[in-house]
Design a protein that fits this description.
Chain A: GO terms for molecular function: 2 iron, 2 sulfur cluster binding; iron ion binding; molybdenum ion binding; oxidoreductase activity. The complex is a heterodimer of chains A (about 775) and B (about 200). Chain A has about 775 residues and is an alpha+beta fold. Chain A contains 19 helices and 29 strands. In chain B, strands 4-3-5 form a three-stranded antiparallel β-sheet, covered by helices on one side. A two-stranded antiparallel ribbon of chain B has the order 1-2. Classes of the chains: A alpha+beta (about 775), B alpha+beta (about 200). The interface between A and B is large, with 62 and 58 residues.
Chain lengths: ~775, ~200
């Protein structure tokens, strides 16, 4: 349903902003006419790449025999680490991951060489003929393997407040436990792909499916040994990103660029799905060891949480990801005394990376699990334990020293959803159902979300935009944000059209490219519209102000009295069509182009000390989920979900509701059906949709109620909106907690030994565990 | 391949004079080397003639016999609407209609196809008016990244024609072969319900 019933924010009548407009490419998408990189016409002579991966997860790489590969008809070039003219390094920051393995291999499937051939088929056949000799060493596959070796990708890190250990001991009640949280494959429907086209003087133009064109530019330049200015990275749209194209797109773009450099021909790489799943990083999986002390109401007095992250073979983005796990280990709750520690363990598995929520979901889920255990111990409703622990007056300082200024928003959402979902009545009804249903058991949970908005690496909180007004009054908009389906292009275009008072049809959005807006941050951390919307508005406003001066002179009024709306500039009863004004501005030699640059205010973060304000604001939400499980098979179904979510004043409610529903379902997949399995040799055994189960239409709850919370961002964001990309994913914590609640009904008072994901197997295991504990 | 007994299908076949069939596969070009050495095995890579009717247009191509319908459409017919998501027949992004039935084009060899093919590019009316299903997907925001959308829409049109769109539950079940990682599923179901009314009305 198109949510036309959402009122304009604050009673202000806006023409575009806050309207539920369709996605910018809607008409093209339904006709198959929106080109992704693999759909672009290939330049004459384009070669195709295939990758040869390591047959072992760990060992010394002593020989790579590629004679048979080269002999395959159609093969034009075979590339290894020796062919890299620059630095053999694709890492985003820490210099610890090569384009091609050299000297040793770090994970099963790690790229060792690439083949460039006249056809994709020839390249793939040839790639299979490489003879890679590795002196195998025992791989570290699990966090326990890595712990034994003491191998980390980055130093350990902790937030400490007070004396957690003493506080736990002094509390009336204590619980200690261990919890495992699985990873997640992005499964963007469009796999990793890049097309590199060599230009003059050694320049390179790379079409890349990436959330971070600037990083692709930098990595390609580094591999080729070129200044950044010689490389252009361009992306019009992605067929899904979800974090999987933040750092992970660089390798394939750089491989295509290297092949284009070596052969002098355009080169394209599109990973086969199995290769994509084996060769690209995923959401971090964790083991969490915890101890908590609490009073008889369930109020936490002290907590210790140790997050052991499987980071894989390199640091990649693990610093920020695991930091964000720690930032969200408080979930929505005040923790008076605490140690939240983390280890970033190095394993011989693909390097784990960004995934929607960027570590936050794991931290939050671990805390929700602790809350559930407290409730179980005290025989209280988990929602009541959530409420007594929720941030509130005098209890408003996060573990990292930031004050939660608007905790009342989170609390109001909890209260409102509790009422609108009829939580209490349904809990009663479920207890009645379970009392008479020995096999099928129902469970319910209502969990909050509080997600910090901003990159925790402060320098990334900036954005640029470039706006041109042409002399016919048409507008071209470009900014550093990338479009991956989240509707960013449309939202920013709405902002710019609003600024000029022109119709959406007058604003042309062009592909994100490093030669129009340079030095961009990734489209990540839910910040796309906050940052780029603001930058674009600032660019548009500069031009509008220049036009207002001209119009003011024409009408004989001060510039500030000129109003831009309905495709005209107005002064009192007089008006000029926007196009006419643009024409006159050009004739009057007025600059009709502007660059905007925005940096998020108020941020400061001292990682060394672990204090500051890493987030501009928080996005809030809550979900109530009801599930049924079959205690004989572990099968489960989500029966009903109620969501109340805070997007501030929505820039586009149609897009925001899509983000909320989609984020929730993706989170539900992470916590129920999506299971990554590595064998003892470090091989990923779930490398296709046949063995890795993402949600389908029939998994979505039939009764699915999503409401936008009525409120505005108290911080000065673009039109008082709030970020929406990641926070809804964590609404799915309610599903996990509801499943645990259903298991709990079998033996109230005993802890539920359920790990995530709650697959049927995990649920059966938990049922057996809780029964055996008696 | 499913062979339709639908007489309309047969007459359409006659009309379009489809000549390619699995039984009639033969190399188009015989190399001179083959003539000189008749005892040599035929080159398995030699192209065979594939004669398709796609969106009402006849398309004759010389292809490796192992070319999938998806690759024939995308790489040889210039129709990139059908997408390659998994290439395993598990994601549904490549769904097209063959003889009016939804078919995974990545699991179908082009040489096997004897009935007319409809892709997302051929769904709108000749005057450019969108198919009710296409319009419904726009009306209900039934996509985000759009990559699965052509497959979803082709599957959805077939779902309605098969009579499997009787209820939201039935739609969810019969659309479960088409993955949408953005999870626009609730909107897809609503869109199909709207389009069904118009398609049957």
């Amino acid at each position: 349903m198109r949510p036309n019933d959402h009122p304009a924010p604050g009673g202000v009548q806006l023409r575009h902003v806050s309207q539920p407009l369709p996605h910018d490419s809607a008409a093209k998408h339904v006709q198959g006419a929106a080109p992704y990189i693999d759909d672009l016409p290939e330049p004459a002579g384009t070669l195709h790449l295939a990758v040869g991966g390591s047959p072992m997860a760990r060992g010394r790489l002593i020989a790579v025999d590629l004679e048979k590969v080269r002999a395959v008809p159609g093969v034009v070039a075979v590339l290894t680490a020796a062919d890299v003219p620059g630095k053999n390094d694709i890492s985003p920051a820490f210099g610890d991951e090569p384009l091609f393995a050299h000297g040793h291999v770090m994970f099963h499937g790690q790229p060792v060489f690439a083949v460039a051939a006249e056809t994709r088929d020839a390249a793939r056949r040839a790639a299979r003929l490489g003879a890679i000799t590795v002196v195998q060493e025992k791989p570290a596959v699990t966090v326990e393997d890595a712990e034994k070796r003491g191998d980390t990708v980055l130093p350990d890190y902790a937030f400490i407040r007070g004396d957690a250990s003493a506080a736990i001991d002094a509390a009336p009640n204590q619980i200690a436990g261990q919890f495992r949280i699985g990873g997640q494959e992005h499964f963007y429907l469009e796999g990793q792909v890049a097309l590199a086209i060599p230009g003059e003087d050694g320049a390179m133009h790379v079409h890349t499916s990436t959330q971070h064109p600037t990083e692709v530019q930098h990595v390609c330049a580094r591999i080729l040994g070129l200044p950044d200015a010689m490389v252009t990275a361009e992306v019009r749209r992605m067929g899904g990103g979800f974090g999987g194209k933040e750092s992970q797109a660089s390798q394939w773009a750089a491989m295509a660029a290297l092949a284009a450099r070596v052969t002098g021909r355009p080169c394209k790489i599109r990973l086969d799905r199995d290769d994509d799943m084996a060769m690209t990083g995923k959401r971090h999986d964790f083991r969490v060891d915890y101890a908590v002390g609490f009073d008889d109401e369930g109020r936490i007095q002290g907590v210790e949480m140790a997050f052991l992250a499987r980071c894989g073979c390199s640091a990649d983005l693990s610093q920020g990801v695991v930091d964000r796990t720690m930032f969200h280990a408080d979930a929505s709750y005040f923790l008076p005394e605490l140690i939240i520690s983390s280890r970033r363990l190095k394993t011989n598995t693909v390097s784990n990376t960004a995934f929607r929520g960027f570590g936050g979901p794991q931290g939050m889920l671990a805390m929700e699990r602790i809350i559930d255990e407290i409730a179980c111990r005290l025989g209280r409703d988990p929602l009541d334990v959530r409420k007594v622990n929720h941030y509130g007056p005098e209890r408003d300082t996060t573990p990292y020293g930031m004050t939660v200024e608007d905790h009342d928003v989170g609390a109001a959402i909890l209260e409102q959803l509790e009422r609108s979902s009829n939580y209490r009545e349904r809990r009663e009804a479920i207890a009645g159902f379970n009392a008479s249903s020995p096999i099928l058991r129902k469970g319910i949970a209502l969990t909050p979300v509080k997600f910090g908005i901003s990159f925790t690496l402060t320098q990334l909180n900036q954005a640029g935009a470039l706006v041109h007004v042409y002399s016919d009054g048409s507008v071209q908009l470009n900014h550093g944000g990338t479009e991956m389906g989240q509707g960013l292009y449309q939202k920013v275009a709405q902002v710019v059209a609003e600024e000029f008072g022109v119709g959406m049809d007058r604003v042309r959005v062009t592909a994100t490219t490093t030669d129009k807006v340079p030095n961009t941050s990734p489209t990540a951390a839910s910040s796309g519209s906050d940052l780029n919307g603001m930058a674009a508005r600032m660019a548009a406003r500069q031009i509008r102000d220049r036009l207002a001066i001209l119009a003011g002179e024409h009408f004989g009024v001060p510039a500030k009295e000129v109003v831009f709306r309905d495709d005209h500039a107005f002064a009192g009863n007089e008006s000029l069509p926007f196009a006419e004004l643009a024409r006159r501005a050009h004739a009057a030699r007025i600059h009709l182009s502007a660059a905007g640059h925005y940096k998020t205010p108020k941020l400061h973060w001292d990682r060394q000390k672990g204090v500051g304000r890493p987030f501009f604001y928080f996005a809030y939400g809550a979900a109530c989920a009801e599930v049924v499980i079959d205690t004989l098979t572990g099968e489960n179904r989500v029966l009903r979900v109620d969501i109340l979510h805070d997007v501030g004043r929505s820039l586009n409610p149609a897009i925001d509701i899509g983000q909320i529903e989609g984020g929730f379902v993706q989170g539900m997949g992470w916590l129920t059906t999506e299971e990554l399995v590595y064998d003892k040799d470090g091989r990923l055994r779930t490398h296709a949709p046949s063995t890795y189960k993402i949600p389908v239409a029939s998994d979505v709850p039939a009764d699915f109620r999503v409401t936008l919370f009525d409120g505005e961002n108290r911080e000065e964001t673009v039109y008082r909106s709030k970020a929406v990309g990641e926070p809804p994913l964590m609404l799915a914590n309610a599903v996990f907690c509801a499943i645990a609640d259903a298991v709990q009904s079998i033996a109230p008072g005993r802890p539920v030994p359920l790990d995530a994901p709650a697959t049927p197997e995990a649920i059966l295991k938990a049922i057996q565990g809780i029964v055996a504990a008696g | 391949m499913t062979h339709s007994n639908d007489p309309r299908g047969a007459s359409r076949r006659d009309f379009f004079k489809i000549s390619a069939s699995a039984a009639a596969v033969a190399p188009v070009v015989a190399s001179t080397a083959l003539h000189a050495q008749p005892e040599q095995k035929p080159d398995p890579f030699a192209p065979v003639e594939v004669d398709l009717v796609v969106n009402g247009q006849r398309r004759r191509m010389a292809l490796d016999a192992r070319t999938t319908l998806l690759d024939a459409l995308r790489r040889h017919a210039g129709l990139t609407g059908a997408k390659k998501g998994c290439d395993h027949g598990q994601c549904g992004a490549c769904t097209v209609h063959v003889g009016g039935k939804r078919t995974l084009s990545c699991l179908t060899l082009a040489v096997m196809v004897r009935e007319p093919v409809t892709t997302i590019e051929g769904l709108a009316a000749t005057d450019g008016a969108l198919h009710p299903m296409q319009q419904a997907f726009i009306d209900h925001d039934a996509f985000q990244c759009g990559y699965c959308t052509p497959g979803q829409i082709m599957s959805a049109v077939a779902c309605v024609k098969e009579g499997h769109a009787g209820s939201a539950d039935e739609i969810r079940e019969y659309m479960s072969g088409n993955l949408c990682r953005c999870a626009a599923y609730p909107h897809i179901v609503t869109a199909i319900q709207q389009a069904k009314t118009q398609m049957e009305g």
